[in-house]
Structure formats: structure tokens, C-alpha cells
Amino acid sequence: MSEGYGVDSEKLKEVGIELDPTKRSGTFLQRDQEPLKFASFYEGVEVMSVKDAMKKYDWVRDYFWKIVRKDQDEFTKEADSEEANGYFIRALPNAKVEIPVEACLYLHRVGKQKVHNIIIAEENSEINIITGCTSDRSAVGMHIGISEFFVKRNAKLTFTMIHSWHNNIEVRPRSAVIVEEGATFISNYILLNPVKLVQMYPTAYVGRNARAVFSSVIVALEGANIDSGSRAVLKEPGATAEIVSRTISRGGKVIARGQIIGEAEGVRGHLECKGLILSEKGEINAIPELIARHPNVELSHEAAIGKIAEEEIFYLMSRGLSRDEAVSAIVRGFMEIEIKGLPEVLKSAIDKAIEDMKSAL
Amino acid sequence: MLRIVNLSVEVEGKRILHNVNLYIKKGETFALFGPNGSGKSTLLNAILGNPAYKVVGGRIIFKKVDITNMPSDQRVKLGLGMSFQNPPKINGVKLIDILRHCAKLSGLGEERIMELAEKLRMKEHLNRSINVGFSGGEVKRSEILQLLLMNPDFVLLDEPDSGVDLENIAIVGSAIRDLLERDKEEREKGGLIITHQGHILDYVTADYGVILYKGRVACVGDPKDIISQIRKNGYEGCIARCLKDME
To answer: What residues in chain B have their Cβ under 8 A from chain A's Cβ atoms?
Structure first.
């Protein structure tokens, strides 16, 4: 426990939360339902709880349940409650903020953490957000997180989410994104540590000449049940999407989904799901889907699941690596996805999260 | 330096090598010829301990140590090194990372890595995933670069000249000549080179030529004679003549 917040600072570090104003342009920390701390260190960025935001601005209410349906399922219904709180992060028009905003949702004691986040990148703004979701080692319960993202005309939002839970936590994020004309939304998701269950399928609605990129690196340890995917709906001419996932099973079950829907002239999308099974108990189910609703679309996918090739291990051993070193080099290489246009700070946060896993491989 | 004694090897349950015997002394380089499927690559893989190539009889002795059952990385630490004909592509594992492992074996530093990468024209590829999207020539140059950094005492080369244009053969050939100390009077290094056409021998001299035929050593002789015989009379003609000479 640290800094009087009643949260485990080691766990925060695992999910990229520094609580250091020199490294972040804003910070938000919520334990269970209670926002413990929030601040912005940069004038182009607003960071506060959604409850405070509603007090400050009348219009914030209009962003609620705009792209995620209240009645989507039992979890969205449950999140539609007075208890729900979460972060409000907004980049003001034309603000370009490379230093990331951090936001942490920490599950401490409550049985069900209900979160509703609103994220807005106003026109021509650029913002990077690292969000870390984690829990006490002893916590038992469920995290329900509604996130609604609005990336306005020509804005760019990079959202990196790192999860680090425990064996007795269920996680049900419900996210949707509107990517307006000429805008870019980049999502990175990293899950390397134990969890009981994750189920999510964030959806981006991509406008004219806009772009959505989803990358995820998921490791399912024994006992984990993960059903995770990304969906892009290419709604207007010139919209593009890339969905890339790397999934490793070390005994857990994973369903790796991906869906790109082409609805307009000249849209393009590519989907890539790759899986690696490192344990006989594991299971990976890759479900890439392409749906075309317009004749002139270009959609493609590739999916592959396998174990580590002996040939690759032998090759590295022929360069002096031991068998274990060879296996971990190959696994680390597998997880390394080239994320284009990612700011250095985010890249190093991601690399660090993956690097921290090394000892476990 | 390397002694192969009655070696028999199976791949996926099928016997490929039958009682192969070979003795290569310190400072000697052998050229290994043979038609496709005769077991040349199998022999190299067995020497380095590729688990897919199962030794079912005989022994491999390197530097007086029986390495028949030794893991590959231990054999490499003992001084064996190999360049692959078709090395695997490994996403995310960068050439530079592998080069650093290679350099560790010989105690070479970062500076030497850069120097040799420059020499083999692989500097642009250092941060790329190994062999992913490499051209035929780049693969061969990368293999030789790795070997130069490992600086093994005994070098196994699996078709360093196949699918390579003349310019690349010149680069690769001169690097192999250095590696095998072919320009020195007193040599410490030994080598075994698989070559189909013998092009590499225009750059690297060999002391002996061996024909492997249907998994057996069919002929040992002067490498230049063997190539000209193979070119003139094919493998079988060459072997027939070789047998006659021995009589």
C-alpha cells in the first residue's frame, strides 16, 4: 500500500501508472467507486471524474450512452446506475499533447466496480492515454467498464489499456468509439497476468477517410477464460481499419475475435489473428470475420495458430542459445507487434509490460 | 578434429544415412557433393544435433569429445558452427539480437559486430526480424555474418552458394575463405561445405571432395577432379570411375 491512497503501488506500476506529474500530462485514480485523485498538468487537457464533469458542463450528459446501448446486456444495464463513476478525459480543440494522460481503475474491495468513462478528442487535437486496470491481490469481484470515445474531425487518439488482475476477478468492458472524418483512433490492449474472465468486443464506427487500429497482446494463463475481440464498422468512404492480435495460451482458454464491416465506397480493412499455444491444456479459438455491404470494399484477413516450431528453436540453439532462451526469445518476438505511429513513451510502457513478463516465460 | 564413425540417421522414421564414416583433421576443408536427397543436409544437421534428425547408430566425435547426444547449444560452445541453406523466418527476433548472441560465443564486442555487418552489407537489416523478407543473397550474407561473429573452429556450410548471384557469391566466398583460414599456411579451422554446382570452390579451396550417394559415402578424392567428373559423367559416372581408381 502506498501514498495514502490505499492502493498497491506495485500493481499500479505493472499497468503503467506512474503518479509522476513530470511523466504524465494528467492523472486519474479511482479505487472501487471513489475517484481518489485527478489532475491535469497541461492546459490543453481536462481530466476529472465524470460526476465532476457533469457538474462542470451541462453537455457532458449528452455523451452518456450515446454509442454504447444501455440495454445491450445485463452488464450495461447494471452499469446504468447512480453509483457508476469513471474518468472524463478531454483534449481541447487543436491541443497536441504527446505526454500521455494516465488513468487507473483499481478494484479494492467492492464486489462490482461499475465504471463509466467518457473520452473526447476535440477537433484537430492529439492525445495519448494509458489506462491501467488492476486490483488488490485479495480482491474478489467484477469490473464493469463502459467507455465511450469520441474522436472528432482530424483528431488523433491513442489509447493503451493494460490489464493486470488476479484469478478471482471478472472483467466486462463495454467500449465504443466514434472516429469522425479524417480522425485516427489507435487502441492497444495488453493482458499478460492472471484473470478469471475477460469478455469484451470494443467497436469503432469509422467515418470518412478516418482510421481505426486495434492491436492486442493477450496471454491466457491456466484458469483464465478470455473472450476478446475488436470490431470496426467502416461507415463512410475512405475509412480504413487494421486489427492485429497476438494471443498466447499457457493453459487458459482464449477466443480471439475480430470483425471488420465494410459499408461504404472504397473502404479498406485488414485483420490478423495469430495464436501460439504453449500448453496442452490451452485452447485458442480465432474467429476473424469480414462483412461487406458495398461492392467496392477491400477486406482481408489472416489467422494462424500453432506451437513454437522446433526448427526455430534449433536455429537459435545453433547460435548458442539454450533451449529455454530460444523459446523465450521466440515468444517475446511473437508478442512484439509493430505499432505504427506510437509515441516513444507509450512504446516503452508497452515494451516494459512485456519485458516484465519475461521471467514468467 | 571431427570424426564420424558408422553414423546412421533417421528422419521421421526413414533411414537417410547408412554407416557414414568421415575423418576431418584440423585445418582441413571437405567439399560434400551428392544428388538431391542423398543425405548431405542430414549429415550436417546430425553433426549439429538437430533433434529432427535421429542418430540410430554410430558416433560423432568432435575435438575428442563424443557429442552424439549433446544438446546443440553445447556443441556450438565446443566450437561447431553452421550456416543454413533455408533458415527459418522468426518474427520479432531481430538480426542484431542474434548477432549479439553469436558475438558472445567468441567474445567479440559491439564494434566488431558493426564492422562485420558493414562488410557483409547487412547493416540496414540489423533491426529487422531475422530472415523475414530477406532476399536469397541477404539470407546467405546474414548466415555468414553470424558465423563470422561466432568464429567457430569447425564450420558446417549448407549450400552457401545456392540461389545467389555472382556479386553475392564473391562477398560470401571471401568471407568463408577468411573463416576457414584458407589463405594461411598453418590452419586451425576445419570445414565441411555442401555445394551442388561447386561455385563456391572458385573462392574457397577444399582439400578433399566427398560424394554422398543414397546415404553412403561413395567416393573421396580431389574436389576439382570430382566436380569435373560430375559435370562430364554425372554422379553415377563419377562414382563408377572413383571405384575403378580405387581398384
So the answer is: 48, 50-52, 71-73, 76-77, 81-82, 84, 87-88, 90-94, 97-98, 101-102, 104-105, 129, 146, 150
Pick B204 or A204 by higher pLDDT: A204
Number of H helices, E strands in chain B: 7, 12
| C-alpha torsion angle, residues B43, B48, B53, B55 (rounded to 10) | 80
CB distance A155 to A180 below 8 Å: yes
Candidates B155, B177, B175; CA nearest to B75 is: B155
Q: How far apart are CA A169 and CA A77, in angstroms?
A: 19
Nearest to A326 by CA among A339, A302, A344, A308: A308
Distance (Å, whole) CA B4 – CA B21: 5
* Prediction pTM value: 0.84
Provide the residue range defining the domain that includes A314: 310-361
* Statement to judge: residues A317 and A301 lie in one domain: no
Q: Give me the residues paired with residue A282 across strands.
A: none
Q: Do A72 and A213 share a domain, yes or no?
A: yes
Tell me, yes or no, whether A81 and A154 share the same domain: yes
The number of folded domains in chain A is: 2
Q: Considering only CB atoms, which chain A residues are within 8 Å of B104?
A: 320
ipTM of the shown complex: 0.96
In the prediction, which pLDDT does A357 show? 57
Q: Which positions in chain A touch B146 (Cβ < 8 Å)?
A: 319
Distance CA B52, CA B55 (A): 10
Residues B2-85+154-246, CATH architecture: 3-Layer(aba) Sandwich (3.40)
Q: Note the pLDDT tens digit of each residue in B107-117.
A: 999 999 999 99
- Three-state SS for B146? helix
Q: Are residues A181 and A327 in the same domain?
A: no
Whether residue A186 sits in one domain with residue A40: yes
For chain B, the first-to-last Cα distance in angstroms comes to 29
Q: B2-55: per-residue pLDDT in tens?
A: 999 999 999 999 999 999 999 999 999 999 999 999 999 999 999 999 999 999
Torsion angles phi and psi, residue B95, rounded to 5? -50, -45
Task: Give residue limits of the domains in chain B.
Answer: 2-85+154-246
- A137 and A286 in a single domain? The answer is yes
Rounded CA separation B2/B125 (Å): 34
C-alpha cell at position B96: 542484431
Please indicate, yes or no, whether residues A302 and A315 belong to a single structural domain of this protein. no
Does the residue A292 lie in any domain?
Answer: yes
What pLDDT does B45 receive? 97
The Cα-based distances of B143 to A33, B32, B65, B86, B113 in angstroms read 57, 19, 26, 10, 14
Are A354 and A289 part of one and the same domain?
Answer: no
Position B119, amino acid: K
